[in-house]
Amino acid sequence: MAKLEKFKKQDYYKLKKHHERSGTLFTDPLFPANEASLFFTRRPPGRIEWKRPGELCSNPNLFVEGISASDVHQGMLGNCWFVAACSVLAGVKELWHKVIPSYKEQEWDTEVPALHQGIFHFRFWRFGNWIDVVIDDMLPTCNGKLIFTHSKSRNEFWCALLEKAYAKLNGCYESLDGGNLSDALVDFTGGVSEIMDLTTMDMKDGIVRKELFKSLLKKKEGHALMCCAIQASSESEMEARTDVGLVKGHAYGITAIRKVFLKDTRLFAFLRGKEKIYMVRLRNPWGEKEWNGSFSDGSLESWPPPAHDLCSCPLKSQRELASIPSRLPHPNGPFLFSSQDLMKLYSRSPEWSKITSSEREKLGLTFEDDGEFWMTFDDFTDNFTEVSVCYLLNTSIMSLNKTWQEQRFFGAWTKGVHNSAYDRSGGCANYPDSFLRNPQYYFDSPGESVEIVVQLMQRDIRDKRHKGVENATIGIHALRVELNRRYRLHTLLETAAVSDYIKTRAVLLRMTLPYGRYVMLPTTFKPGVETDYLLRIFSTTYIEAQPLKREAPSPSIWPCISSPKLATHVLVRGISGLSKKMQAYCIIRCEGTVVRSTTPSESTELHWNIGALFYRKTGKPIKIQVWERRMLRDVMLGHFLMEAPVSEGRKRITTDLRSLEDHDMPTEGKLTIEYMTSDDITSI
User: Fold this and answer.
1) Residues 160-179: what's their mean pLDDT?
2) 250 is catalytic
3) Which of 180, 284, 438, 471 is the catalytic position?
4) Which residue of 124, 186, 286, 304 shows the fewest CB atoms closer than 10 Å?
């Protein structure tokens, strides 16, 4: 479980108590109200004054009428990625309670303002731990207004203070200029993030699009946080607005995903089921400039509305709206609309007339230029190029809904003497001579139904970017190995899964693997890169992962006990061409070590793909037994003795089942075996 660290050893409660006693306001000496806290390299744009909320309004509040996605508006910083993440965070009460701890205690006392000490604290997850960041409430302003993130209400300050704490954690405000959506989501939650590149999917295929919607809806219902963006192909395209009102290189929060039912007045429609469309609700951190396509908030275009379709016709102008009587009858019933109702009803895209009033109510539909808007999923996939998803994998011991087990490993890629224990930066599989010198971890997959999620993370370097420090390009490579392997891997075996290699703070690899043992290598793309990493392994069923540190068995210190002389890798592929269906398994025996395969379903083709590694002291043959599963008692069909002498590379043997010794029945079929033997026991 992640522990709580005090950032720069500042204790919020001790500092607050001190200022309560002294009757003074807290001023943070570690993040002072000066240019050093604003920028690493730039000059402030004009005259900046640092002011406390009480100097900006008469009744400051942490929250005004609660917290919502529409509170947060981006300022002059290019930190839409952070602001979009704030919007998404605001929609999940359990999450922002953790990021903004003891929020009721931190609120201003409107009856006794003097009780306020000008001190706040917020919490962020970083590299395995929650970090408590203390700040004062001095905020940068220009002409009496906040210049960075602010709320739509002038007396609400939670988002401005949260941004200041995040800026302090990262060095200064400038460090937040440009970033990854997924990083902010992870910092707010401690979850694991994934970036989905929509350009790699065939969105013209209706089945692919539908499956993507189902996947995102399931993730959203599982409380995953989501943001999206349109990739800019060049610097000049950054923040360029498209014909449909969307902004390139800009982050949007995904605040809802819904199946929306349409109106259907045709007779017996209920017998066919309601027609529905897939929709997504997004929010622009700027608080304005929305989508202007289908199902947008629309514009004022024509008046008067046709009497037969009052619900779909927009108004022409505010002036004409003012001339409307204060109450108008609804053409289909006794209900009355106020002019304000009509303004909201008609200043929208006509497609909304297809949505029932009950559905509009469920959607919480508004038509204000507040930065939040709906669009169809088809339009969403046609315009956006990537989606960032942060999964909240529940690992709490106290939770009744616990579904994931987590294991963590802190490590480092290091350069040391060749082939030594400190030579652990071998690069990716493109560098076969050094790849296996990376750190290695093994785990067993109990079966194909077990989902395994692995996150590889390096330390955040945002506070060092102005010095030219960059993230390393990192990735995860998993190999299927022998069932009994307990020492480091020295020969490339079958690849089971590989993540993308990305120059980012974290990468994610999802796996659903067949039964077997696997070795996982966290790697940098190029060899020789040195940095720390955190490897997090989540699984739906407990699997025990362990680091592989030893190269091979150690020589015996006792002269009467011989040491291993040969290392042999055996891979029994299976049996093909059986004359009848059967359930059979194999057992591999060598010098007291036994490895057994699983028993596949009854078939004429049995695929075991069972691997075993033996460190042989005597060079005696390896015995491979074939057993048939029967109701009362399993029967051994026969066994095969394999000498497995020293070989150059992998050798393949195919033998008839009829030729197996002790064969008790004439059975057609061929047994396929591969092996590799070396007299250097550290080479396999």
Assistant:
1) 95
2) yes
3) 284
4) 304
Question: How far is residue 536's CA from residue 128's CA, in Å, rounded to a whole number?
Answer: 9
Domains identified in the chain and CATH numbers: 4-190 (no CATH), 193-298+348-389 (3.90.70.10), 405-548 (2.60.120.380), 566-678 (2.60.40.150)
pTM across the whole model:
0.83
Of the residues 73, 116, 150, 250, only one is catalytic, namely 250
H helical segments located in 100-157: 103-106
Known active-site residue 18: no
Determine whether 284 is an active site residue: yes
Percentage above 70 pLDDT, the chain: 83
pLDDT of the residue at 594: 96
Can you tell me the distance from the alpha carbon of 606 to that of 598, in angstroms, rounded to the nearest whole number? 10
With b for 16 or more beta-carbon neighbours within 10 A and e for fewer, the 254-277 pattern comes to bbbbbebbeeeeeeeeeeeeeeeb
The pLDDT value given to residue 347: 45
pLDDT digits (tens, 9 = 90+) for 209-228: 999 999 999 888 878 888 89
With contact defined as beta carbons under 8 Å apart, do 9 and 15 qualify? no
Which residue would you say has higher pLDDT here, 262 or 671? 671
Of 373, 73, 394, whose CA–CA distance to 228 is shortest?
373
How far does Cα 91 stand from its chain's mean position?
A: 18
Q: What is the pLDDT of residue 322?
A: 45
